[in-house]
Specification:
It is a single chain. It is built from 23 helices and 19 strands. The chain folds into 3 domains: 229 residues, no CATH class; 115 residues, Pdz3 Domain (Roll), CATH 2.30.42.10; 348 residues, 2-enoyl-CoA Hydratase, Chain A, domain 1 (Alpha-Beta Complex). Helix 3 crosses helix 9, helix 6 packs across helix 7 and helix 18 runs antiparallel to helix 22. Strand 3 and strand 4 form a beta hairpin. The radius of gyration is 27 Å and the shape is globular. Strands 3, 4, 5, 6, 7 and 8 form a 6-stranded antiparallel beta sheet that branches. Strands 9-10-11-14-15-18 form a 6-stranded mixed beta sheet, sandwiched between helices. Strands 2, 12, 13, 16 and 17 form a 5-stranded antiparallel beta sheet that branches. By secondary structure, it is of the alpha+beta class.
């Protein structure tokens, strides 16, 4: 019966499909069957591809092709409703025609929309901006138009919003250029449309953008469509399980984000654009100290080579964009970017960077001694180390005893700090996305003895201990984290928190990625690609997983990342939080009794810190902007709003003015308000506990004392 409906569906859809349809290649059915087999037998959940997952896969595919819910109507989806529970059967059989038909439907709808836009823009003064109207710009969860009539009304409102935003942006830039007398200065050119011909009227600029979108979809090839379809299927299990087409698998194998990207940025596809999720320390993007530079969270919408034209990359596959960004060392790549601070996407900036090789040794541990002046005129010395990644054995191709080791590099700093008799230490794990699990284990064992993390796969739960048999640093410890601290960083931070070994400070939570992925080939990787499948999950030694919830700091000092939609909990279909039995461990200390006093004192200091106040005001503004679903279409109201947004950008510059030097030489207490406050918290903690030396007995219960006597014998 399901097959009968499927063929009826094809007959119903056929009249609206374009003549030049995309078709699955001969090897695609075999790829589909093998992928489903691996998902059924390997994924951590143990769930076979069934009707429930079929519905999720269908939703994933529809949302991927129509992310802003403007191309497919409720009427369209009602006709396709029976397909929702057939995806499992069709993909298992190797039948992917349904996906290609949906891709073609969306491509045709884009062509229709482009024609509609050009028709509207041909009218003189097509929009009335005096009406008290608004536009829902945040459409990821918006209701789809019921039918074609509502769809065209939505297209009209979207077009009106784009026209108004572009008109006002031009107006503001012209006023700014006039006020600064830089009408002919290159720096005064409007930064929102550097690749547009500004001699054209606004209507033609917008029409050109829609024609570009139409052409991008028109140029989509069969492999790109395969990637979209099978990714939707695999991500029905969880957002980190994914199919990699031959082209994407090639990029993965070459480790594009570390070596071949050319600018040192980790990228991911996000609603038709490319979002920067991480800037790698030591790379061109992170080393850039100019006022206009890349920021984590920025969205790339155009790429150019040197002084050449900027090509629109919206809606193009990530792999194609990465190929344009990377290139020979010493050449220039130019990026058109929507700033992370602009949630509506009405402004852009142009950033040019010189490509360079990205080596992991540029992500090595760095550190120095910080000095904090106390009220009585004396000072305390603290060790500070920044760990950008948990690297191991791959720097400069070294192996064996000479291989790179994050733990070994960290130990060198610890020995230096011990020699200088520091009173405590700050470990900075902000923006550390993870790396080697073994390095996370060995690093933790420099500070505590015992188990560090638990790993659960489909068969059992394994408790992993620290790999070293000595504690190298015993004085008070603070660990800094943020929303971009993930995976191995969360393992270390959670272990320190469970042992009571350190005070965790940072955003309201860390990223929350507690899963492990394994890459499995689907045959010949050059023709079939590969699967990346979630096969295990990390758990804290207290029994809770770091998945989804991440690590919640003991003292929260939010950064701009806390206001953005970052983290595992923002990903659709993320695996849930779960627990296992706690491991056998004993606390080395307990910071809990001190936290109320430390938190209260910290808040008082932050209220007097000008940099912190500016940064926290920015966080609140971005949170408010994220909560707003609508923007006004009345010109005076919109003008007021956009002026306020520009004022906030100046506030952001003030809040982040100290980060220029930080990007080049690393954070220090003068340019980083979070680090500055962390040092004060650490000093307060030392006072409250009676000094920097390890207490004789931090926990009087019998279980802990027995463990300390018998369980931690070196």
């Amino acid at each position: 019966m399901k097959k009968i409906f499927f063929y009826l569906f094809l007959l119903t859809l056929a009249p609206i499909l374009a003549a030049e349809e995309l078709q699955p290649q001969a090897e695609y059915p075999e790829i589909s069957r093998r992928m489903v087999y691996q998902l059924n037998t390997t994924h951590l959940s143990g769930e076979r591809f069934n009707d429930r997952l079929s519905i999720v896969a269908w939703t994933n595919l529809v949302d991927a092709l129509d992310f802003d819910r403007t191309l497919l109507t409720q009427e369209d989806l009602a006709k396709l409703e029976p397909l929702k529970t057939q995806i499992d059967d069709l993909v298992t059989e190797g039948n992917l025609t349904f996906g290609y038909d949906l891709v073609d439907l969306v491509r045709n709808r884009i062509t229709e929309r482009c024609a509609y836009v050009e028709k509207v823009l041909q009218k003189n003064a097509p929009f009335d901006f005096t009406k008290d109207e608004s536009y829902q710009w945040k459409r990821r969860k918006a209701t789809r138009p019921a039918n074609r009539k509502e769809q065209e009304a939505l297209w009209y409102a979207t077009l009106k919003n784009e026209y108004l935003a572009l008109t006002l942006a031009k107006e503001f830039d012209a006023e700014e250029a006039k006020s600064t007398q830089k009408e002919t200065d290159e720096a005064a050119k409007p930064d929102y449309s550097e690749d547009d011909d500004l001699t054209l009227p606004t209507t033609e600029i917008i029409a050109k953008r829609y024609r570009t979108l139409r052409d991008v979809y028109k140029e989509m090839d069969s492999e790109t469509a395969l990637q979209r379809i099978l990714s939707a299927v695999s991500m029905a299990y969880d957002p980190h399980t994914d199919y990699m087409s031959p082209m994407n698998f090639e990029d993965f194998s070459m480790d594009m984000n570390l070596t071949l990207c050319g600018i040192g940025a980790t990228l991911r596809y996000d609603d038709g654009m490319i979002r920067i999720t991480e800037l790698m320390p030591g790379a061109p993007a992170a080393n850039d100290t100019r006022d206009i530079r890349l920021q984590e969270g920025d969205r790339i919408i155009g790429v150019g080579q040197g002084d050449g034209p900027i090509e629109d990359i919206c809606h193009k596959p990530l792999s194609q964009t990465v190929r344009k960004i990377r290139g020979p060392k010493g050449t220039v790549v130019t990026l058109k970017v929507i700033p992370v601070s602009d949630k509506t996407g009405t402004r852009t900036k142009i950033v040019d960077l010189i490509r360079d090789e990205i080596h992991l040794d540029q992500q090595a541990v760095t550190g120095h001694v910080e000095r904090l002046e106390l009220e009585d005129g004396s000072e305390r010395k603290f060790g500070y180390v920044r760990i950008p990644a948990f690297y191991a054995g791959v720097v400069s191709g070294n192996k064996g005893e000479n291989a790179s080791s994050m733990t070994r590099d960290l130990l060198t700093y610890i020995q230096s700090f011990n020699t200088e008799h520091v009173d405590g230490m700050v470990i900075d794990l902000r923006n550390n996305g993870g790396g080697s699990l073994m390095e996370a284990l060995s690093m933790t064992s420099l500070f505590v003895s015992g188990p560090v993390v638990q790993v659960r796969d489909k068969r059992n739960v394994q408790v992993l201990d620290g790999t070293l048999k000595r504690v190298a640093f015993r004085k008070p410890l603070v660990v800094l984290v943020n929303r971009n601290s993930a995976s191995a960083s969360e393992i270390v931070a959670s272990a320190f928190q469970d042992y009571g070994r350190a005070i965790i400070i940072g955003d309201s939570k860390t990223h929350g990625k507690g899963t492990v992925q394994t890459v499995q080939s689907l045959g010949n990787s050059q023709t079939h690609g590969a699967n990346r499948i979630t096969t295990a999950c990390f758990y804290r030694i207290n029994g809770g997983t770091t998945q989804l919830r991440g690590v919640e700091p003991d003292i929260v000092i939010p950064s701009i990342y806390d206001a953005l939609e970052l983290g595992e909990d923002q990903l659709p279909g993320a695996l849930p939080y779960s627990t296992v039995a706690p491991a056998y461990y004993a606390k080395t200390s307990d910071v809990t009794p001190y936290l109320p006093h430390l938190t209260k004192a910290s808040r008082k200091r932050l209220q007097k810190d000008e940099q912190a106040k500016a940064a926290l005001q920015l966080v609140e503004h971005v949170r408010k902007a994220n909560a707003e679903q609508f923007v006004p279409l009345q010109i005076d109201a919109r003008r007021t709003r956009m002026k306020a947004e520009r004022a906030i950008e100046k506030l952001q510059d003030e809040a982040l003015k100290g980060t220029k030097q930080s990007r080049k030489n690393g954070p220090n207490a003068e340019n980083d308000y979070v680090l500055r406050e962390a040092l004060s918290i650490l000093s307060d903690y030392i006072d409250l506990r009676g000094g920097p030396d390890e207490p004789v007995n931090v926990n009087g219960d019998l279980r802990t004392r027995l463990f300390q006597i018998f369980g931690a014998v070196q």
